[in-house]
Amino acid sequence: MTRLATETCHRKNGAVSSFKLTDLNSVFQPVGPRLPCSPLNTTRSQTTADPSPFLPPGMNAAVRAVVRMGIYVGAKVYFIHEGYQGMVDGGDNIKEATWESVSSMLQVGGTVIGSARCKEFRSREGRLRAAHNLVKRSITNLCVIGGDGSLTGANLFREEWSSLLDELRQQGLIDEEAARSNSELHIVGMVGSIDNDFCGTDMTIGTDSALHRIIEVVDAIMTTAQSHQRTFVLEVMGRHCGYLALVSALACGADWVFIPEMPPEDGWEDSMCQKLSESRSRGSRLNIIIVAEGAMDRHGRPVTSDRVKDLVVRCLGFDTRVTILGHVQRGGTPSAFDRILASRMGVEAVLALLEASATTPACVVSLVGNQAVRLPLMECVQMTQEVQKAMDEKKFDEAVRLRGRSFENNLSTYRLLSYRKSSFNVAVLNVGAPAAGMNAAVRAAVRVGITEGHKMFAVSDGFEGFYKGQIKEIKWGDVGGWTGQGGSLLGTKRTLPGKHLDKIAEQMRIHNINALLVIGGFEAYVGLLELSSARDRHSELCVPMVMVPATVSNNIPGSDLKQTSVSAVARSLTRCCQSASGTKRRVFIIETMGGYCGYLATVGGLAAGADTVYIYEEPFDIRDLQANVEHLTQKMKTSIQRGLVLRNENSNENFTTDFVYQLYTEEGRGVFDCRKNILGHMQQGGAPSPFDRNFGTKVAAKAIQWITRTLTDSYKGGRVFANSEDTACLLGMRQTSVSVQHHRIPKEQWWLKLRPLMKILAKYKTSYDVSDSGQLEHVTRVRPRESNTTSAI
């Protein structure tokens, strides 16, 4: 018999959950890359604790995923309350967890199993007591959620495990059989830190939620700053890592940012004041400066928010205020991104523990692109320490490189947003339905285009405005404040250009347009196809053309991830669940947008803890509907007396939302009642999330850089001429062949792999594809230059 435990901590704090696996061999038979799993019945227990204000949002989602995945594969799961302190003290701090005990945790910040600093665990005596408490319960596997300090402590605990057992046996606290049966300790880590300061992962649990808190404050401040023509200096967390400051600066269009990894050059005071003054001279009524709490200059002197404020007041005389966000960045409801990230990491951590052997090093589950990967824990910790060493030695370029490709890309995009003279003419337009982040993409395109040396033109109302001549030059100051605006300020329509090619070619000749940047959804994709296909008939269309995907449906081929409304859906679903908390035995039937693509429904359902999600890509019939009703009926017999069912708007032409609602109402009569809600166009509205702002900014900047390179290559004989296939491209998150099937659905959709995970966490009997799991990778120390992430249209 093998037993398993998981633990969650944060740096010096610790919040632990644990679980015991019974009879591994009977659960995992060698049946190929898919693991058939059946959940075990468990007894209920109470496992509540006050959440710690020092822990990042999203940790509860990780705990929930670990517990439910552990139970699902036949594990007996334990909570270890108060982190390492609870593991040292033992007793009631280590309690069995059940399926119901992690219900309604997704939307709660902090950690419900508590956290505490633990000096005892730093000593061998404390770790000896912790080992004794684990051995008494036959726990030999730990999942630790925390920062590099907690993870380093867990690895030391693992290295000492054999000697700790020997010492316990010599003291007579355990017998020979207990030492033999608990001879190995396996550890898997998940990183929980709002600073995103752990190397080896693109994003840590809690970072996106912290960005939400920062952007909410910045958006509120910008209204008063604009009204009073003020300058605001915002101090955000980041004592040793400037990720929050850097990304929030991109997401809100800040005028200046200070981060520890890249101190400003000598003379920065004059440069900053000149930039602020130029911004005001171009018509801006406000300035935003963001300072990471650990920022310093090239000589090691701290760059504080008060120092920056005094400088602005002294040199420019601007009315300046300071806002220090403090611990508000750590609190609040976790974002949809963090809930999904933590859920995926939790499931992957369980699989990693089950597959661990005596020779397997302690690993950490990381996010690279959109894939969960396993990396050796100490390699990541060592690289994280090397970043600080490089900063101490003033090797700042090295520190930025060690932070990883994501950090480098953010920094390079920020550096692009400066002012320079113009040359080529580039037109920007939005096409299709509005999507969050469109305005951020337009702003970045305009300013980076000016930086790259182009004259930028804005086209109103998509291709319809194009052929009608609604084209005008757009300048640097015209896009000020666009980053946080929802919808499309340029205007957007679904009109395709096919019937108006002559007029569009004429407008391109009149305005001497040398390149096109189209931001939009599937209509933008089809429109660019029509334009590129007409090049042989209209020489004016022989210019570089590039598309930036922006759609709530996430259905553009050639790109794994686009700007979506997952956050809006998750917020709405969370409110529905909260409204049901006071009314027992209630099921919500929710319809989401997405056309024939089920991405929005699936990922929104995973973020909100849905029981069932109906999508077009996964056909269903009346038997499936009946099985889902029976599943909810059984659920109502437990302490979790509420349900959530999502339906993609075009999932089935016969089983409409009304039909599903009426079926559930009738079949659930006397057991539960139902409520129906169609989210509709509210999913397209509202302020864009930090992810959408940052993603739109970075992708648009890359699109303009691609245009610049292609214009240079295509400029011959005093004119631009580009008619090859690779001069009409779609910019995405990965390079791929473009393939589309019916109903605007790409043939390859990575997110479909999340469907079994969602079903497992809802306690359905299903199988989970682990063909991509089990591979322990290594940290890439010198990352190759990112290749052009474009696909020919």
TrEMBL record:
What cofactor does this one take? Mg(2+)
Keywords assigned by UniProt? Allosteric enzyme, ATP-binding, Cytoplasm, Glycolysis, Kinase, Magnesium, Metal-binding, Nucleotide-binding, Transferase
Quote the InterPro entries the UniProt record gives: 6-Pfructokinase_euk (IPR009161), ATP_PFK (IPR022953), Phosphofructokinase_CS (IPR015912), Phosphofructokinase_dom (IPR000023), PKF_sf (IPR035966)
Q: What is its EC number?
A: 2.7.1.11
GO CC terms, sorted: 6-phosphofructokinase complex; membrane
Question: Which GO biological process categories is it annotated with?
Answer: canonical glycolysis; fructose 1,6-bisphosphate metabolic process; fructose 6-phosphate metabolic process
Q: Which reaction equations make up its catalytic activity?
A: beta-D-fructose 6-phosphate + ATP = beta-D-fructose 1,6-bisphosphate + ADP + H(+)
Residue ranges of every copy of the Phosphofructokinase domain listed in the record:
57-352, 425-707
The signal sequence is: none
Superkingdom is Eukaryota
Annotated GO molecular function terms are:
6-phosphofructokinase activity; AMP binding; ATP binding; fructose-6-phosphate binding; identical protein binding; metal ion binding; monosaccharide binding
Looking up Gene3D superfamilies in the UniProt record yields:
3.40.50.450, Phosphofructokinase domain
Q: Which Pfam families match?
A: PFK (PF00365)
Q: In which pathway does it act?
A: Carbohydrate degradation; glycolysis; D-glyceraldehyde 3-phosphate and glycerone phosphate from D-glucose: step 3/4
Q: Which family does it belong to?
A: Belongs to the phosphofructokinase type A (PFKA) family. ATP-dependent PFK group I subfamily. Eukaryotic two domain clade "E" sub-subfamily.
Task: Write the protein's name.
Answer: 6-phosphofructokinase
